[in-house]
Automatic annotation (TrEMBL):
It comes from the Bacteria. Belongs to the leucine-binding protein family. Residues 25-374 form the Leucine-binding protein domain. Keywords: Amino-acid transport, Signal, Transport. PANTHER family: BLR7848 PROTEIN, LEUCINE-SPECIFIC-BINDING PROTEIN. Residues 1-24 form the signal peptide. GO terms for biological process: amino acid transport. It comes from Pseudohoeflea suaedae. This is ABC transporter substrate-binding protein. The keyword rRNA processing does not apply.
């Protein structure tokens, strides 16, 4: 049984230490967007899972059984993701699936996993993935609704009540736009301008000019992911906005600062995870051990900085491995699902997870950290 608080990487080490003769391989399936427009999400996710599988198998696997990983690159294409999900279940005979770098690919995978009774942990952000609760579907990132709530809490503390919003029309951007509109009033925030842009748009100056010319705008909020938010950030700087800019957790990475330009991004705020401020964590922080261990291992393996998105994959794999170790039958998808739903107090890079039949995310708002770009890097907002 789990202790009250379990740290992910420590758990992985403990799982590997459980000795016993290997009876069979535990087949795990993954479909992520390692290439294509969402590669900034899927590439660190794929690398993270491959690294963790190797680490775990070197320690003996799960209860003496090695993990056999089958990983597909769906390129961000929902149709490919659906095909790969079907292949993972029917041909590769996996007992569980991790993946869905984007909301679109996640929705394709979950429809297959749910129909076939295979536990699935998504790496995408939209609240529609786990609300309403689906029996076999879980996820690791905070929801877009939670991001709205965290942002509006910060705005409320600063006395900001009138906001201009510019959102991407992709699945994540549209979902977060809708969620922000739904909860804004709870924080005394009014959306006084509401603009959108498409995934291929290369300049948002017209939309941002309309926002700037709207009376009373005190801040700009940009729900979206990919290159769009970086363009918005540069355009905001070029237009000389003198109000705060907020982005979503969909771009919470060092790569985003590089893409947008450090000067343009200076002062930008967004809700993010402890991974982005690993150097600022105190040793008594509940996430310190797992964040620093993962950061060190990933840098050593790939000579790259960690990202929030790789952290989502880290947590998904750690959660799934832990559930498999506790399942009545490690080869029975339903038993794994049941064990996953009983997870409580599991500390990951993203937050502390406690699932239940009513909650397949398992995170609360405290798992988010409000971050700000200062001197070209992420700093916690004091």
């Amino acid at each position: 049984m789990l202790t009250k608080t379990t740290t992910a990487l420590v758990t992985l080490a403990a799982l590997g230490a459980l000795s016993g003769a290997a009876q069979a391989e535990i087949r795990l399936g993954v479909s992520v967007s390692a290439t294509g427009p969402a590669a900034f999400l899927g590439d660190p996710e794929a690398k993270t899972i491959e690294m963790l599988v190797e680490q775990l198998n070197e320690k003996g696997g799960i209860n003496g059984e090695k993990v056999a990983l089958t990983l597909y690159d769906d390129g961000g294409d929902p149709n490919k993701a659906r095909t790969f999900a079907t292949r993972l279940i029917e041909d590769d005979e996996v007992v569980a699936i991790i993946g869905g770098s984007t909301t679109g690919t996640t929705m394709s995978i979950l429809s297959v996993a749910e129909g076939e009774g295979i536990p699935f942990i998504s790496l995408a952000g939209a609240i529609s993935i786990i609300d309403p609760v689906r029996e076999y579907v879980f996820k690791t990132p905070h929801t877009d609704r939670m991001a709205c709530e965290k942002i509006f809490t910060d705005m409320q503390a600063q006395g900001i009540s009138k906001v201009g919003m510019i959102s991407g029309t992709d699945g994540f951007g549209a979902s977060m736009q809708a969620q922000c509109k739904e909860v804004a009033g709870d924080y005394g925030v009014e959306i006084v301008a509401d603009e959108t842009y498409g995934p291929q748009d290369a300049d948002m100056t017209p939309q941002l000019t309309r926002i700037r010319n709207t009376d009373g705008v005190q801040a700009v909020l940009n729900p979206g992911f990919g290159q769009g938010p970086a363009i918005v950030t540069r355009n905001v700087a070029q237009l000389g906005f003198d109000v705060p800019l907020y982005q979503s957790h969909g771009v919470a990475s060092n790569a985003f600062i590089e893409l947008a330009g450090a000067d343009s991004a200076e002062g930008l705020r967004l809700p993010g995870t402890a991974l982005l401020i690993a150097d600022s964590l105190s040793e008594d922080d509940p996430q310190y051990e797992v964040v620093t261990s993962y950061t060190k291992a990933f840098k050593a393996a790939y000579n790259q900085e960690v990202s929030t998105f790789g952290g989502y994959a880290h947590d998904a794999f750690a959660l799934m491995a832990d559930a498999i170790s506790r399942a009545d039958d490690a080869e029975d998808p339903e038993a794994i699902r049941d064990a996953l739903e009983k997870t409580s107090g599991f500390v990951g890079t993203t937050g502390t997870y406690s699932f239940s039949p009513e909650d397949h995310l398992g995170l609360d708002l405290s798992a988010f950290r409000m971050l700000e770009v200062k001197d070209g890097g992420w700093q916690p907002v004091e």
